[in-house]
Amino acid sequence: MFFDSHLHLAGDIAAEPFFSEARAKGVSRFLVAGTSLEDGNFLCNLANPEAGIYVAVGMHPHAAAQFAVADLPGFRNWLQLPGVVAVGEIGLDFYYDFSPRADQERVFTTFLELAAEVKKPVIIHCREAFAPCFELVSEYYAVGLPFVVHSFTGTVAEAEQWLRLGAYLSFNGMVTFKKADNIRSALAVVPQDRLLLETDSPYLAPVPYRGKTNTPAFLPAVAEKVAQELHMEVDELAALTTANACRLFGIQK
């Protein structure tokens, strides 16, 4: 059974059919990542460990300019709730720059420190910002605490640097894209115990679903490509990556 280690779900979507469709395809556990203060209450109410639904709360770099220090206690409180297992999605995005870079770095640092305080793993978004992202994680996140660089799209050299720092790396539908040779090359250097699968739905639907709204039900298509690249059986990959996600997020298998 698969673990979709990173997806998004808006409050206007009926959650039960969304998850039921994925369960029918063999996806039994889910990590729904937060992006802002506004989605915190919705996500925390969605968390249901008995149903395999887990949550992370954080401020996406796109929303960094909206963050105020007075918002931090709310996140701290959410991180004490059952099923809220990680801080994220946080990081830097210098591709879109929807928030000023100084705000992105300030908010990223704040949430790295919060995660270290509450001893929760971090889910990192890093786009066109490897050097400053790596530097901030190295400086502000407690050594030995686990973290994942989700939707990995960097180079082999960047993957190796993240791995030396202790990162897990997560791969999604982009690994199936024809021109994504860099992602497949990076996949090859990831140790088996640091590999995760995700959809990042509703974005980045894999082949053969490109152009459609992505859902966790499409995760097996990602797994098939990853298993092919790593010369593994899909069932073996499912068990491996589920165990890795459970270890990262502190979930009983």
Compute the number of strand runs. 8
Order of helices and strands: EHEHEHEHEHEHEHEHH
The name of the CATH architecture is: Alpha-Beta Barrel
CATH class: Alpha Beta
What's the N-to-C terminus distance?
Answer: 11 Å
Query: How many distinct helices?
Result: 9
Strand line-up of the largest beta sheet: 1-2-3-4-5-6-7-8
Uncertain segments = none
Brief overview, please?
The protein is α/β, with parallel strands linked by helices. It contains nine helices and eight strands.
Please tell me about this protein's structure:
This protein has 253 residues and is an alpha/beta fold. It has a single domain, classed as Metal-dependent hydrolases (TIM Barrel). Helices cover 38% and strands 17% of the residues. It is built from nine helices and eight strands. It has helices at residues 15-24, 40-46, 72-78, 101-118, 130-140, 156-164, 181-187, 219-230, 234-249, and strands at residues 2-7, 27-33, 53-57, 84-93, 122-127, 147-149, 168-171, 195-197. Strands 1-2-3-4-5-6-7-8 form an eight-stranded parallel sheet. Helix 4 packs parallel to helix 5 and helix 6 runs parallel beside helix 7. The longest helix has 18 residues, at 101-118. The protein is globular, with a radius of gyration of 17 Å.
Q: What's the layout of helices and strands?
A:
Blueprint: E1 2-7, H1 15-24, E2 27-33, H2 40-46, E3 53-57, H3 72-78, E4 84-93, H4 101-118, E5 122-127, H5 130-140, E6 147-149, H6 156-164, E7 168-171, H7 181-187, E8 195-197, H8 219-230, H9 234-249
Helix pairs in contact: 4-5, 6-7
